[in-house]
């Protein structure tokens, strides 16, 4: 009993934080006022308790804490194929999860013709060119506040998902594991928080991975460096970890890890990145140790920045 009431208290707290974080539309203010009103009462009435419980359910629908929305498709709508019907559900759920859209970017997300929605791009499915599917989302610089509902996993043919420079918060839904063609994921400059979004490790086609300028914390799983990625941007988050020995397995041409808190050595395996690496930026991380001599193997690196790190040792002449 004690455990479960503690859990409820924690969930409520988390829900309150979510409200605060998605602060665009005034909804957060109203909720905060309401909460203050409730807590100033001597006790909570049954109805108030029920209200809080329902709100909690709204925010936490599954075991991962992913939240979904409740979209129904009008009978009068017809779709060229079931993939586009699923896309309609996903995009309408997303629209419900948006609390502020100051540029009215999603204003035309109405009706069944999802391929004409602003920021939504359709294309023939590579494996079945007769089938038109949603292949790209580009909402860069839309300044939208909201979160990513789990229904986005219905966009299972997406190759490109770009939402940089918005105010999305919360976490990356586990349903993203269904987006198995995803090639470019750009979540940069938003307000995502919590641990590293492990779901990306299972995306087989991912090449461009950009989560810079968010609030992710904890460690970065070493599996990231075994993935066949071309670009990794994790800078300006709150990650804290040792750079693992398998770092050099990464075939990236660009990796930027600046402005986090990494410890330990730059691993010697970095020498194995010489065929692919062009740009590596580790600045301002609190790395407090050695630079391995293998760094001299990095022949095609044009940008190498480890400044503000208290590193001991000297850079090989080739790099310095
Ligand atoms: C979703 O909407 C339908 C129809 O409006 C309703 O019957 C159902 O209870 C809703 N489900 C949830 C989980 O809110
Ligand atoms: C937002 O865009 C839609 C469709 O483009 C338009 O009908 C609506 O009036 C716009 N709303 C505002 C507040 O500008
Ligand atoms: C580079 O890779 C090879 C083979 O994967 C491995 O044996 C070697 O130890 C690596 N070099 C470094 C410096 O880690």
Automatic annotation (TrEMBL):
Keywords: Cell wall, Cell wall biogenesis/degradation, Glycoprotein, Hydroxylation, Leucine-rich repeat, Repeat, Secreted, Signal. It is found in: Secreted, Cell wall. Residues 90-122 form the Leucine-rich repeat-containing N-terminal plant-type domain. It comes from the Eukaryota. SUPFAM superfamilies: L domain-like. Residues 1-27 form the signal peptide. This is Cell wall hydroxyproline-rich glycoprotein. It comes from Vanilla planifolia (Vanilla).
């Amino acid at each position: 009993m004690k455990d479960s009431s503690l859990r409820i208290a924690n969930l409520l707290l988390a829900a309150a934080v979510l409200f605060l974080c998605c602060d665009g539309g005034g909804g957060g203010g109203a909720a905060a006022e309401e909460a203050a009103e409730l807590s100033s009462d001597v006790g909570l009435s049954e109805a108030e308790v029920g209200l809080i419980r329902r709100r909690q359910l709204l925010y936490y629908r599954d075991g991962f804490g992913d939240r979904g929305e409740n979209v129904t498709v009008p009978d009068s709508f017809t779709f060229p194929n079931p993939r586009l019907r699923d896309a309609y559900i996903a995009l309408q759920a997303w629209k419900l999860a948006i609390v502020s859209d100051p540029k009215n970017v999603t204003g035309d997300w109405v009706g069944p013709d999802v391929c004409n929605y602003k920021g939504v791009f359709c294309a023939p499915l590579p494996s079945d060119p007769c089938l038109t599917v949603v292949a790209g989302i580009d909402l860069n610089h839309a300044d939208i506040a909201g979160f990513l509902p789990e229904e986005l996993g219905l966009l299972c043919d997406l190759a490109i998902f770009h939402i940089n420079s918005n105010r999305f918060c919360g976490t990356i839904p586990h349903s993203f594991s269904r987006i198995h063609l995803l090639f470019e994921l750009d979540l940069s400059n938003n307000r995502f928080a919590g641990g590293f979004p492990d779901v990306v490790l299972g995306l087989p086609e991912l090449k461009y991975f950009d989560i810079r300028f968010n609030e992710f914390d904890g460690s970065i799983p070493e599996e990231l460096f075994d993935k066949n990625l071309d670009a990794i941007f994790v800078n300006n988050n709150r990650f804290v970890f040792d750079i693992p020995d398998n770092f050099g397995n990464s075939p990236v041409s660009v990796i930027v890890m600046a402005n986090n808190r990494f410890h330990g050595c730059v691993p010697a395996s970095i020498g194995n990145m010489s065929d692919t690496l062009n740009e590596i930026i580790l600045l301002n991380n609190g790395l407090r140790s050695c630079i391995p001599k293998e760094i001299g193997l990095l022949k095609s690196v044009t940008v190498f920045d480890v400044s503000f790190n208290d590193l001991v040792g000297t850079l090989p002449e080739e790099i310095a």
